[in-house]
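User: I'm writing a short methods note and want a consistent example. For HmuY protein, I'll paste the sequence; you return only the structure tokens, no commentary, since I'll be parsing the reply automatically.
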Amino acid sequence: MKTNFLKLTLLALVVFTASCSNDDDNADNETIPAVQTVKATNISARDGFTKFSFSENKVVTTDKWDIAFSGTTIIVNGGGKFNPENAEEPERTGQGAISIVSNAFTAVTTFPEATTFKQDAATAYAIPTGSGNGWYSYNMNSHLITPIAGKVFVVKTHDGKYAKFEIVSYYKDAPATPDPLNSEATKYYTFNYAYQANSTTTF
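Assistant:
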């Protein structure tokens, strides 16, 4: 009787150990879902600042925004207001910051060094404004605003996650040959982005 009890005890112990081992193996082999590239289209920058959330993949009106657009100006939800007198410029309530990387969008797979991230401040925006300084170039003859190729913006979001984005177009429906003189078709952003929701440091 004692022998049978001992055998059953040993068998249970072997089964339990094997089960724990399989759980550990599954945890070690668990793959992190690939980060997907998403295209945001026709984000209006025509009336005040339009706030966008990467985690929600949409325009928002709450304080849980990551970047915002007004004309050719792009701001981040971190730091302080550049123009305190501008009531339309939203208060920064998050810990957002931006690092500008010169590379192809798909080639930016790791987060930049922490020291390269900047927040908005009274002295300057994290993404500089003006032709050739930030995200676009302006043709004085045609009045065309064109995104600068190879400019990728890595964003520390309002809640400490990360995203990267590249601007595709400043014109409604992102036409191949936009008409910059059509005022109704300007100030509409189309951009590609990838949002990293977990604690890894890669895209």
